[in-house]
Amino acid sequence: MDFKLTTSAFNNDAIIPQRYTCSGADVSPPFEWQGAPEAAKGFALICEDSDAPGGTFHHWAIFDIPAGWQQLAEGIPRAETLAEGLRQAVNDFGKIGYGGPCPPKGHGTHHYHFQLLALDVANLGLAARVDCRQVASAVRAHILAAKEIVGIFSR
Questions:
Q1: Of 34, 75, 131, 142, which one has the fewest beta carbons inside 10 Å?
Q2: What are phi and psi of 34, to 5 degrees?
């Protein structure tokens, strides 16, 4: 089976509903996956805006996701540590957890890359209060497979 990532919130390359943005409830979208490599010992999901005026803007990094998991529910609480050792990083808004799309008004359409990474480790061993960039750097040496969903949004 191929490694697949889906969300019921929006289609790939489609508009992210307001609910998942700073213009709405600003809750994290739900994700489901299947077909991860058998060697996967854990997962990480990272969201980046590749069109931000100052360069790539990191909206979310959730990591140390247990190997047996195949989904993330909508509205993950904004806490550093969650059930079963799941962790979240500090985003570029300076807050822990998900920070939804919030491009500058009139700045055109931005692309939000939600990347699910199957990893060869169960735990990245990162210190408390790491930021999304540190997570993105730490996962590089451990990626077995990656899948991505891109959403777009403008204000």
A1: 34
A2: -155, 165
